[in-house]
Design goal:
Mean pLDDT: 89
Low-confidence stretches: none
Radius of gyration: 38 Å
Number of strands: 7
Strand content: 5-15%
Number of helices: 7
Amino acid sequence: MDGVRVMVLIMIGCATWVGWQLYSFPGGWAYAFGTQHAGERQHLSEARRKMREAERSSYRRVAAAKEQQHSTQALFEERIRRAEKTLQRVSQPGRGEPVEQQGAAVLHQHVLLIAGEEIPLAGLRVRFEQAQHKNHIYVTRLDGTVHWTPFPHAEHEEDGVRRFAVRIENAVAAENAFRAQQKALITQAEKELQEARADTGARDAARLHLTQMTTLHQHDRQRKAARAELEAARKRWQTITGKLPH
């Protein structure tokens, strides 16, 4: 059974090759396979090969230029996106990244949430207080407003609550430092965004290179010469056989 399949595949391959040969060298069996026309077939094949190589070489240059242009444009846009994100982060930081949660209190990079209420960290004073059945963390805003949250002993170990209070204090110190330099950070971020938008040198050079390569492709002398040679070979074949090959 396997032998039959092999024979069938061989027959299909041979038929395909014969069909392609007759298509490539039209005019009949003698012209497509006869030894007396082998030189003409070789001449036409060589002209086709030169045309393919000239086309591939020219298209490769254009493709490489397109890839370079795409890459530089992507880098240009990515730099702007990063600068925009930085400006957004320093000018409108929001809550920031979550840091830690204990019970109903959730510490973020810029705010503390207690039972869903958002408390800015800037200027916040933190106090840990121990009691018989539960511990508390108290936080006092700059305006004197006090918030607190309980941590029952049955649910929270004292050491964990104390560490959480220290973590809040550290976050407050970091937030105070951030707010102190926020104006300078915004100025720097705006400058970097402006520079990113103005730095079009690489992008413009890549666009110019693509335009040059496209123009060179359209007027490529090697392609024109190869095409002229192929056209001459096709017409010569037509003169001999009466059939114009592809």
